[in-house]
Amino acid sequence: MTAPAPSRRDDSPDPPALHDRAIQDLSFIRKTIEGASAFTDVPGWGLVAIGLTAIATAALARAQRTAGGWITTWLGEALLAGCLGGAMMWRKMQRRGVKPGAPLLSAPARKFLIGFWPAIIAGAVLTVSLVDMRLVWQPDSTVPRVLPGMWLLLYGVGITTAGAFSIRAVPLMGATFMTLGSLTLIVPSISGDLMLALGFGALQIGFGAWIARRHGG
User: Fold this and answer.
1) Where are the alpha helices (DSSP H) in 14-66?
2) From CA 174, how far away is CA 118, in angstroms rounded?
3) Can you give the C-alpha Rg of the chain in angstroms?
4) What's the confidence (pLDDT) of residue 96?
5) In 3-state terms, what secondary structure has residue 180?
6) Fewest beta carbons less than 10 Å away: which of 17, 95, 161, 189?
7) For 100, left (φ over 0), alpha (ψ -120 to 50), or beta?
8) What 3-state DSSP class applies to 40?
């Protein structure tokens, strides 16, 4: 007489406890909601500060006697703006409160940054390709005419793309930058210095104040 074979039910793993499944479901729902939400940590007061430094930079750049001096002045402003914007954004995120164990950047923040950087990197590569490094430091050397308009246009593209995952004011600001950049490129008589001051200066101050008032700083 042979022993009875063990049933298949005995070999199957134990089903997860009810509370474990509930925790997994809640975690999935929380991640889904977080991924679908908008990025609201755009620093309004940070944009205001960046706009003020940009206006000062426009005046300083205009006084330069070489194209190299002009470009270096604006590259310094870009570095300063990046530090200011990053620090103010981090401060706003911390003030909102980050839960222990949560990732450094939320899903909306990651989407925002992924949408922003490609256009900025393209602008940096095009700048290097347009500038003749052999002549840029010669006295009375001139800046490539397309440079101010190209910077405004590509910055606007980055802001508009990233703004798809953010509050309404951000893509609107990006579209305005694109309009300024297009005008600067199409109409040669428009001063590039003036448009840079208007875009990186006045425009960011205006939208920054709007965001600060409506979205907590």
Assistant:
1) 18-36, 44-62
2) 14
3) 25
4) 73
5) helix
6) 189
7) beta
8) coil
Dihedral sign, Cα of residue 189, residue 193, residue 198, residue 199: positive
List of E strands, the chain: none
Q: What is the pTM of this model?
A: 0.81
Enter the tokens of residue 173. Answer: 């600001």
Amino acid 43: pLDDT: 93
Please choose, from the candidates 184, 186, 209, 208, the residue with its C-alpha nearest in 3D space to the C-alpha of residue 194.
184
Read off the tokens for 30.
């929380």
pLDDT tens string 43-78: 999 999 999 999 999 999 999 999 999 999 999 999
Count other Cβ atoms within 10 Å, centred on residue 194. 13
Residue-wise pLDDT tens digits, 109-158: 888 999 999 999 999 999 999 999 889 999 889 999 999 999 999 999 99
Within 10 Å of residue 100's Cβ, how many Cβ atoms? 4
| Mean pLDDT (the chain, rounded) | 87
CA–CA gap between residue 119 and residue 213 (Å, rounded):
28
